Amino acid sequence: MITLHGFAASNYYNIVKHALLYKGIPFQEDLLYAGSDDLLTVSPVGKVPAITMPDGFNLSESNVICDFLEETYPEKPLYPTDAAERATVRQIMKIAELYFELPSRRLIPYVFSGTQAPNAVKEEVRQVLGRGIIAMNRLCQFSPWIAGEQFTMADIYVHHVNTIVNAFGATQLEWDVLAEVDGMKEWNKAMSETDIAKSVQADSQANMPEFMQHVKALIQAANAK
């Protein structure tokens, strides 16, 4: 059985978990936080998530894991058979990562500390998000799924990216970013109402108090040095 290493409050962890559940691949979970010594034994840089296959093979990086799962378990595919359509799915995922999630992550320290980001940082984040909004409006179809008629890895990926955009980008900027992409809010709501998304979100919320205690302990340790 596959072992999924990481913690449920991580959206990257949840991307892989969602894909495993959708494909119906049996797996067990191993609670590990980023940077732990145990995680370093299965993830070269101690990042979440990582998986261990039944034969002992370890793999990290969420997009790499998902591609590996698609190739290893082709039943119930998450990518189209057409090469151009597959490329479009990956393009949507990459743009969501670079222009939605990563700029929003810059605001995480301010949210966790209960402070407002400097205006210069907010403006930089706004500019990058703005580029992402333009690109996603050009690429996303929502007919009914993000890349067209087929449910794909892009649906899973962008849905969990949006948790970061909503939790950190939108709150600090007072900006409903998803509303700027035609059809995205409705699609995101439909995604959140699927049984798998509900299950993943429930586990994420259950893990959040422990995760926040872990973060606070790291901050206190850093401040004590």
TrEMBL record:
Annotated ranges, domain GST N-terminal:
1-77
- GST C-terminal domain sequence ranges: 82-211
**InterPro entries named among the record's database cross-references:** Glutathione-S-Trfase_C-like, Glutathione-S-Trfase_C_sf, Glutathione_S-Trfase, Glutathione_S-Trfase_N, GST_Omega/HSP26, Thioredoxin-like_sf
Membrane-spanning parts: none
Q: What is the protein name for this chain?
A: Glutathione S-transferase family protein
